[in-house]
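User: Structure tokens for this complex, please. No commentary.
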Amino acid sequence: MSATAAPVAVARGESPSRRALRRFIRHRLALAGFLVVLTFVLVAILAPWIAPYDPIETSWSRIRRPPSELYWFGTDENGRDVLSRVIWGARASLMAGVVSVIGAVLIGVPLGLLAGLAGGWVDALISRIADAMLSIPFLILAIALAAFLGPALENAMLAIAITASPVFVRLARGMALDAKSTDWVEAARSLGNPPWRTAFVHVLPNIIPPLLVQSTLSIAEAIIAEASLSFLGLGQQPPSPSWGSMLNSAQRFLETAPWLAIAPGAAIFVVVLAFNLMGDGLRDALDPRADRR
Amino acid sequence: MSTPVLDLARVTVEFPTDRGRLRPVDGVSFSVEAGKTLAVVGESGCGKSVTALAIMGLLPQGGEVGGGIRLGGEELLALTPDQRRARRGGEMAMVFQEPMTSLNPAFTAGEQVAEALRLHQGLSPDAAFAKAIEMFARVRIPEPERRARSYPHQLSGGMRQRVMIAMALACRPRLLIADEPTTALDVTVQAQILALIDEMKRETGTAVVLITHDLGVVRDHADDVVVMYAGRVAERARAADLFANPQHPYTIGLLGAVPRLEGGAARLASIEGTVPDLMNPPPGCRFAPRCPFAIARCAEQPPLAEVTPGHQAACWRAPLDTLLEQAA
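Assistant:
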């Protein structure tokens, strides 16, 4: 039996994560998105070594120069190299995106699991707060919180994390409700698992795929939110570079020096698109129903 | 006689609903001794699964249990939720009806068996996994090393039910509750799983509560039987006695509805009428509206009375022997 069964078992024995990886790689747009994200991450990490100029060093002798061989993306109203600022700005944007979404997951998922598994008034309380937060437009709430906390990149990230968390509360709650009625959760309880262990050891691993997809899409949203807050002066503080604040100062020179807006604007667009493509690809790759086609 | 492993004394289960209190289990008493199998029989909705969940302490939110449930002499209903949780999996365990969905899809089968050992015996992950592989061998899973590393979707239904049994028995519980463990399986696999439960019972001395609606299973695997109807015990007897000499009209109806190989193409009997609405049960004997032998006195609830030693029926007209002769 073993001689004939073995190869079949190997094919069927592919673990869920390997299968997802194989499907993700086959998904061309998703892979492209992932490579773009990876490039930006590397650029952000390597900024001190690859930025051709100091991003905050001003020079009166090279104000608003158009793109040239020396200054690929031109220089800004203070004579700073736009390319260097976009490279350094990637740090603020990616960090704001990733850190605030991690914060949102850490706030939202435990609350969502608690709401879904505990039920009753706990669920009602958590769900109504999440609903109330979701009824306020994302940016308005983020701006209000950031303004309340004071203008700084850390505060902007915290504001975005809080604003993005209700989505994760809802997602985790819904998945926990599904899981609660399954036989394997009942079986886990019948083995004597305490409630917290049922939630984190049994339910959580089963809801990681949708959480991963939502996180990726939320990062795109958080990057836009950070850029918006910085545009309004509530995020990264000058002179530190940030795509949002660069766009803000660029708007005064839109007709005379459009390159000031084009570079950071394009960077935001490309990164957000890449995260969205990656999220869509992950969703397809992690969908267990998309199997055997 | 030694203390029974499990002793239920007039157990009731109630749920508050919008229309009033629902009582799916109403004064159920029975006990099981070590190394014996007690079958709880009845149709869907008669309260047998609710009874099992009440014993395990796994009733859905709002469920209230009354009466007494003793495990090895210890009153479970007097324990705190944490203390009860500590008994689950260690001293009492349950095998569920649906092996296809009772395993967590995110973990390998071996990890899930190992979890029971980690929770209750404090074993390290490696030691627990090694012991899980031993359990796989004991429940006759071929290639236990490889199967322990398989995910549930890679296992057949029968194999998964074996994993569930390994999980339940890993910590050598005193009590195993099997809630229709074979209903979802192929007939050939059913026999194997029941034989496995019997074998494990002999090996470990576990008391087994086997919940089923299949009287063929009861005949072959149970020592004692409790027949439940609409939340109450209708009849309680040794398995052999029950089949030879049923003393409750409902049991007779059930036995008449079992197809037999011998005896040719006799018509199967059916029990007329439907199960009473538990929100609004008939007064007295709940089977009376469907009972061919019902008399005026059946409007009072009959006690569970001894008919012959060790054989009890909740029927005013028991023993039924003369009635049956007249009917025949």
